[in-house]
Amino acid sequence: MLAGGGRYNPVLSPDGTRLACHDTTGDLVIRDLATGEERTLLAPLGGNGLPGRPSWSPDGRRIAFSDRNRLNQRFREGYNVIRVVDTATGEASVHQPMPHASLSDRGNSGPVWSPDGSAMAFVMESALWVMPVSPRGAPAGAPVRITDEAADHPSWSGDSRHLLYESSGRLRLVARDGSGARTVDVPIRYARAASPRRDITRVHAGRLWDGTGEEVRTDVDVVVAGRRIVAVEPHRAGAGRTGEKLVDASAATVVPGLWDAHTHPWQYTYGGRQTTLMLAYGVTSNVSLGGFAHEGVRIRESVAAGRLAGPRLFSTGELIDGSRVSYSMGRAHRTRDGVRRTLQRAVALDYDFVKTYVRAPAWIMAEATRAAHDLLGVPTGSHLLSPGVGLGQDLTTHWRASQRSEYGRGHTPTGHAYQDVRETYGGGDFKMVITPFSALALLGHDPALARDPRVTRLMPPWDVALVEENAAQPPSAAVVRSMESEVALYRRILDGGGTLALGTDAPLTPFGLHLHLALRVLHRYGGLSVAQVLRLATAVPARLFGAGDDLGTLEPGKLADLTVVDGDPFRRFDDLVRTPWVMRDGVVHRQEELLAAFAPAAERRAGDRVDWLRVSGVLRREPCCAGGAFGL
């Protein structure tokens, strides 16, 4: 191992002697591979995710990468620009390819320096562009668009005459001048049909809540054949047949697999821990409401194929935004052609949800809604209440979160909602994914949660620091009032027939754990029954995201996703966080086995001088805006 503490986007220098990468806060770091010396070259211009992957100049003197600038100190949004730094002097320059234009995102959009040093390639308006540059990396002419199809992951041929890129699941090769584009015949869509599973598993549940009503049954067997439930029946001693696998949950409570209806896939940033964390906390399904599209597809397919331990993922792509963006996975647009390419890409990658973001104008929201409903058959939403309703979207992804519209907020600056908001959500046609951020403060009522091995062994150090800080003191009276006010609104919406699903916005909150804290807030301060609360994280999100026929309840014919609770949450709700094992798709995942795959945090942090609480703050919010509301 070359370095600890989190290193991302590693790229070797042309001569192979140095490694450029970013640390956890986005600083550009250069490491001399012979001596091991590491130095920080410069900090990012803005936060909200890492800068883009570095690209070395052919002589190894300079590095180019995408960064996000700031236009003022009131709003965090800016342009994804090209930043060039001299590795010897640290002198840096910033270049915008065209006025008011952004590189598409800070993930797989370049810039990539050509081997002959004469040009950079990048993705803008979801198309591939080439721009001539000087030896110092400054623009030496206008950029030229060389494709009219969605493009990602550009790379140069060794002679600088061709570019290879990915387009909606195909590898494409094009000449530098845009001529002769063709598909490269590489089987990147390889799939292998899985053999039908005929194994029979009988789960003996001491208590069972099937998600269909209020009743909790006792001494029940859930019989699973392969992936699906075939029977839910009273337990009879000796009822198992030859060849059945018996799983004992006779001292436990079994509920439908939990959902987190608002997450963002950052699996590589978490060192592979993200999906494991959710399973360990009983989450068997999660919904991405924004992330790098190809990473989402990778996780979705890996989990479905049984190659990755994690909850099933309902995936989307980048946040579809206007010309300025904040988060690294915000997809910037200022033209209709750019939006068209992005939505064609969404269809090709089979999004499960389409999300527009806070600077997307009405015409972008309308186009995204049309594509979601007519081409994909999936829901769509945003942060914007009134504009979303008017343009035919299905939901908002928060009650309170950042937005830039001049109208349409769901709350006042002091956190109150009025009759129109309650009525809009209360009819049931327009829905909300709720994300009670203040629930993190409940750690102060149960500090033992910070010592749980799922925290100390599975969480990255910045989340461990955040959990420990919040567990150190009980929530203040002001925070409790905020919780009470928020959940009172949710209760009124539910009483009016509204549809609410529970999410966490992780990784802005700790994966897995925060879902349980949010459930506690709803039960403790909202006056909701245990069954009402659990439905917000089981049956409701399953229906909302089009999976109600297969998931959300424990009934014959449905997929075998269930969460086992060590205790009885219907008598002591806090027991719900104790999830020794789950079954997802008919396969048992035990917490002890998930924990065994990772080193304890104490070992990982030995000798670590990093201020991880500061890192946590930098990761989650803009340094200028640490006191403000957030939400992704």
From TrEMBL:
InterPro entries found in the cross-reference section: 6-blade_b-propeller_TolB-like, Amidohydro-rel, Metal-dep_hydrolase_composite, Metal_Hydrolase, Metallo-dep_Hydrolase, WD40
Molecular function, one GO term: hydrolase activity, acting on carbon-nitrogen (but not peptide) bonds
Highest taxon listed in the record's lineage: Bacteria
Residues forming coiled coils: none
SUPFAM superfamilies reported in the protein's UniProt record: Composite domain of metallo-dependent hydrolases, DPP6 N-terminal domain-like, Metallo-dependent hydrolases
Amidohydrolase-related domain sequence ranges: 487-574
Protein's UniProt name: Amidohydrolase-related domain-containing protein
Organism: Streptomyces sulfonofaciens
Phylogenetic classification of the source organism: Bacteria, Bacillati, Actinomycetota, Actinomycetes, Kitasatosporales
